[in-house]
Amino acid sequence: MKRTGIHKNTLRLGAILIAFPVFAFSLITVPLQPAFTDTGGLLANAVVGVFAGVEANPYNTKAQQLLEKENELNAREAALQENTAASSTLEDWYGRAALAVSFLVLLLVALNFYFDLRRGERGRGKLVMQVKN
Fold first, then answer.
1. How many domains does the chain divide into?
2. Distances (CA, A) of 2 to 8, 9, 10, 16, 125
3. Can you give the residue range of the structural domain that contains 110?
4. Residues 34-87 pLDDT 10s
5. Is the dihedral angle over the CA atoms 114, 118, 124, 130 positive or is it negative?
6. How many helices (H) and strands (E) are present in the chain, helices listed first?
């Protein structure tokens, strides 16, 4: 059993020792500079003379129609955002006014409770019920 593990490790080490010099030799013998500098020329040669075209018809102009529709929708959205920005200042004013009125009502209710409490304390001993027959 241990022989198999030792055997596998020896094979792995041997493969690494053989692969490293082969890789180093290929780096030395194959110059990499022309592959990096001539890429533009290779691409230019690959595309020369390639052209395909179909006359315009309702089916192959859908992409252009979609782009036009998208541009129209973007313009409408921008106009809507401008209107919303203009009306938001008015809505902010309404909100602030409603808040101020709410605080005023709260103050009036609190004053009412306070005056009722004072009136009750002053007249506590003098409360007289009058009964009419």
1. 2
2. 10, 11, 12, 21, 110
3. 62-114
4. 656 666 666 666 665 556 677 777 777 888 889 999 999 999 999 988 887 776
5. negative
6. 4, 0
